[in-house]
Design brief:
Elements lengths: L3 E8 L5 H11 L17 H6 L6 E7 L2 E7 L7 H9 L3 E7 L6 H12 L3 E7 L8 H12 L7 E2 L8 H11 L12 E10 L3 E10 L2 E2 L3 E4 L4 E4 L2 E5 L3 E4 L1 E2 L4 E5 L13 E4 L18 E7 L5 H14 L4 E7 L3 E8 L2 H14 L4 E3 L6 E5 L4 E4 L11 E16 L3 H10 L3 E7 L4 E9 H4 L3 H8 L5 E12 L1 E8 L2 E2 L5 E4 H18 L7 E7 L2 E8 L15 H21 L17
Parallel strand pairs: 1-3, 1-4, 4-5, 5-6
Antiparallel strand pairs: 2-3, 7-8, 7-16, 8-15, 9-14, 10-11, 10-16, 12-13, 12-15, 17-19, 17-20, 18-19, 21-22, 21-23, 23-25, 23-26, 24-25, 27-28, 27-29, 27-30, 30-31
């Protein structure tokens, strides 16, 4: 174990994590130069297209007689659950900071996670080869954050490979070797799992105590499921089979499990013949922040959607879903996400990997409803709100947020927070250029386009990180939308009473542009209970019924117009309005 180092790379999104991982693979000879490609550890097409890491990925490297196990982690706030899982499997963390951008909000969040997990943090300043790099300023920011010395900060360029060898040497020099009891019964932490169509469930594990051999009968301690380790080995980035995995090592287990429930992330693997007495502490359950309805475009695709969500939830431990029924959209699922980017990624994966045509509804959060008899009901959908006469109060989730931005944008950022019903708590100036704005705000107001507005206000320099705080009672109402006098439950929203008028007007205005014209006039309305607060009319399609007449008395024309009017009135009575799928995500688009 003295020769093993388990480490992960943590950083804000786009600070060069994946590029640094590529150089480390190249310099240790793990991947041949001819097989090398950019973002080597990012397996998904989506990761390559968007230039971001979505899923953590382990890989083993050998360098100077040491076994280095790297776990490449995502950098976006939505995937901080992936980061927390990889930190539990490591003893050392490389903190990568972009020399042109400095410390960002997610950098701080990841550092706090690493400190809480008692990891050795090695600061790395990346992109020093760029003309815009400001090494002295960013080094001072890191020194203030970590309390380290200037000489401890490694200045590298992951793109050119400059000084990257020093990173490997520093990991061996100051990184902790794993601790564990080799003689004890097997205990292995499942930090990730994937579903392979051909091999079934594959677990990524860190061996905490004992040893695992090929073909051992294993037991999952929390799920109480038993199976066989059909194949074990390590990743380089391809799967390389081994005969055994020893204490301190990171590797994979191909199991004969067939269902999601048997192989949960955070579970402890032990041997069936000689089980461990106590399971590992595992992880906190991931709590979704954002909920959206997911419906197939036709009801025949419902079983395919259910199957796809089952498989995807094994590859994505944070995904949670439950069945839902809508009057307009039929049968579907209420799916919980960690944020809007997570929702976007899941949507694209379902559409690409499983070839599904889907309708997503406007994202919302969950609410705690206290009834008059003091009973508490949790709702994830505005349409499920009980009768208002039975409600004592409604509580909504609030977040604790932190925005890192250049000093000159502090005023605009505080104004943006206040506009979202937020409370500014404090402003800290890290140095002459960087400020941190701490605030509290209702989560619902952060869901739609807060991040986009922040980026445009701060010329792209602002970054945002948040965590769930508590639930607070507020004056909340259900805002319903009526299309041709018919309530569409999938469009219903929970909003603060003070914002209901504005949201109602904006939404019916957007719906007017999206819903196509019919042969009769369509009335769009926003309502709170029985009170209409906003209205827009979609005028009927015009057809000149008198165009074919040539001359003659005007009474002939009047007769045709009267007939047309009566026909339109009859259509209005019985006609149904087809609502396009874009209408259900109307709140996500600002313009």
């Amino acid at each position: 174990m003295e020769k093993i180092r388990n480490f992960c790379i943590i950083a804000h999104i786009d600070h060069g994590k994946s590029t640094l991982a590529d150089r480390l693979l190249e310099m240790t000879g793990t991947v041949d130069k001819r097989d090398m490609k950019e973002q080597m550890l990012d397996r998904m097409d989506l990761e390559r297209e968007k230039g971001i890491t979505i899923k953590l990925q382990p890989v083993r490297m050998n360098y100077k007689g040491h076994e280095l196990n790297l776990i490449d982690t995502p950098g976006h706030v939505d995937f901080s659950y992936e980061v927390s899982r990889s930190l539990e499997a490591c003893e050392t963390a490389l903190l990568v900071v972009d020399a042109t951008q400095g410390i960002q909000a997610q950098t701080l969040a990841n550092v706090y996670l690493a400190i809480a997990s008692d990891l050795t943090i090695i600061p790395v300043l990346n992109k020093i080869d760029l003309p815009a790099a400001d090494v002295p300023r960013v080094s001072n920011e890191i020194i203030k954050l970590l309390g380290c010395k200037r000489q401890e900060i490694l200045e590298v360029s992951a793109k050119t490979g400059q000084n990257v060898e020093k990173v490997l040497d520093r990991i061996i020099e100051v990184g902790k070797s794993p601790s564990g009891e080799e003689e004890q019964p097997l205990r292995a932490l499942v930090f990730d799992s994937i579903y392979d169509d051909y091999r079934g469930v594959v677990l990524y594990v860190r061996i905490i105590d004992g040893q695992l051999n090929k073909s051992n009968h294993i037991k999952m301690m929390a799920a109480n499921a038993s199976g066989i380790a059909l194949e074990i080995g390590h990743v380089t980035p391809q799967m390389q089979p081994d005969n055994s995995l020893k204490t301190g090592q990171i590797g994979y287990i191909v199991t004969n499990f067939k269902t999601v429930a048997e192989a949960r992330v955070g579970d402890t693997v032990t041997l069936l013949a000689n089980p461990a007495s106590k399971a590992l502490s595992g992880y906190q359950e991931a709590k979704p922040f954002v909920y959206a309805g997911v419906f197939p475009s036709s009801n025949e695709e419902y079983p395919a959607l259910k199957n796809a969500l089952e498989k995807l939830s094994l590859n994505d431990a944070a995904l949670q879903y439950s069945p839902e029924n809508s009057q307009v959209l039929g049968y579907g699922f209420r799916v919980g996400f960690l944020g809007l980017l997570h929702m976007d990624i899941v949507r694209e994966r379902l559409e690409r990997e499983y070839r599904l045509e889907l309708i997503f509804t406007n994202p919302s959060t969950d609410y705690q409803v206290i009834l008059m008899n003091n009973e508490q009901v949790d709702i994830k959908n505005a349409a499920d709100l009980p009768d208002p006469s039975k409600i004592s109060e409604i509580r909504e989730p609030w977040i604790r947020g932190e925005i890192a931005c250049p000093n000159e944008y502090v005023g605009a950022v505080i104004q943006l927070v206040v506009q979202q019903r937020g409370l500014q708590k404090r402003v800290e100036y890290v140095d002459e250029q960087l400020a941190l704005v701490a605030f509290e705000a209702p989560l619902a107001n952060m869901l739609t386009d807060f991040y986009d507005q922040l980026k445009s206000l701060t010329s792209g320099y602002g970054s945002f990180n948040y965590e769930l705080m508590d639930y607070r009672p507020e004056d909340l109402v259900r805002l319903d939308f009526l299309v041709a006098s018919e309530r569409v439950d999938s469009l219903s929203l929970m909003v603060h009473r003070s914002e209901s008028m504005r949201v109602g007007r904006e939404t019916v205005g957007k719906l007017k542009e999206i819903i196509p014209k019919q042969s009769f006039q369509v009335v769009l309305q926003a309502a709170i209970g029985g009170k209409i607060i906003a209205r827009e009319d979609i005028s009927a399609m015009k057809k000149d019924v008198t165009g074919h007449l040539y001359g003659g008395d005007v009474s002939r024309k009047k007769k045709l117009w009267a007939k047309q009017k009566a026909g339109k009135a009859r259509m209005k009575k019985f006609g149904r309005v087809e609502i396009p799928s874009e209408a259900f995500t109307v709140l996500l688009k600002r313009d």
